[in-house]
Amino acid sequence: MKSSILVLSLMTAVALAACGKKEEPAPAPAPAAAPAPATQAGQAVEAAKEAAAQAADSAGQAATAAGQAAGAAVEAAKEAAGDAAATAGQAVTDAAAQAKETAGAAVEAAKEAAGTAVDAAKAAGEAAKEKVTKE
């Protein structure tokens, strides 16, 4: 009986070993290239920062150029307004001179007409006087 217990124990051990949990080999370690994506991400972040800085510089330059263009437009408008005012002032001066000449001519015509009227009145007075003395 001792030998049958021994054989039974041995068979049970073999059966348990055959049906038991098997250990699987450990997975291979990750390749050393794994840190590269982090380095690439860092480089991408730096490149994005540089691009943003360049974009900000470009925007600043564009704003400066726009300000200069606006200043030039204001100066051009001032100059044009000054030229227009000078032209308008000259036109007013010319119109006033022409009005003065026309008024002077009208005064001379009025003087001549008054002189003619005085001469006509004198002649009428002389004629009336002669008529009265004849009668």
Write a structural description.
Helix content is 87%, strand content 0%. With 135 residues, it is mostly helical. The protein is rod-shaped. The termini are far apart.
Features:
135 residues; mainly alpha; 2 helices
Please give the structural blueprint.
Blueprint lengths: L1 H18 L15 H100 L1
Number of strands: 0
> What is the average per-residue confidence, as pLDDT, rounded to a whole number?
81
Question: Strand-and-helix sequence, N→C?
Answer: HH
- Terminal-residue CA separation: 205 Å
Count, helices: 2
Radius of gyration: 61 Å
Strand content: under 5%
Shape: rod-shaped
Q: In which range does the helix fraction lie? A: over 70%
* Regions with little confidence, pLDDT below 50 for 5+ residues: none
Sheet with most strands: none
The assigned structural class equals mainly alpha
Quick recap:
The protein is an all-alpha fold and 135 residues long. It is built from two helices and no strands.
